[in-house]
Write a structure and sequence with these properties.
By secondary structure, the chain is mainly alpha-helical. The chain contains 7 helices and no strands.
Length: about 160
Amino acid sequence: MSVVRNIIRSYRAPRAVISDLVARGTGEPQILFYGVLACGLIFVAQWPGLSRAATLDPSITFEQRMGGALFGIMFMLPLLLYGLAGLIQLGLRLAKGPVAGLHVRLVLFWSLLAVTPLMLVQGGLTGFVGASPGVSAFGFVVLAVFLYILGAGLREVLHLRAREA
């Protein structure tokens, strides 16, 4: 199934999507692709807000803001995601028993990729409306959806591990 269809399906049935990705034998190259694609889309989602901020405060140019966002999102975020995946794997290992790191990374990176359409909407809102309570509330919705997909995916990975044992 295509990435776009799986993203749409992740909002309804995240466990089924993760189960399908694991059953398909998704490997590290595909997982890395999901992570890099998610970071790229998050970077694009920042553009409207950065443009608005540069217009309102020209002391820092748009190009400077873009450079900072590029470094933070495209270079630092993937490293942080790998670290977070390691911490999640450690937490699961302590609480529930050993889980494959590959599956934890798959769930984390896929969850992030699945919420990027919402992040793009939030970026557009930030560009048009600016920092407002409504945009912040939408950010909490994005976070809640991310945690929902992440939690469901981790439960599925634990369920698959229990089935294999």
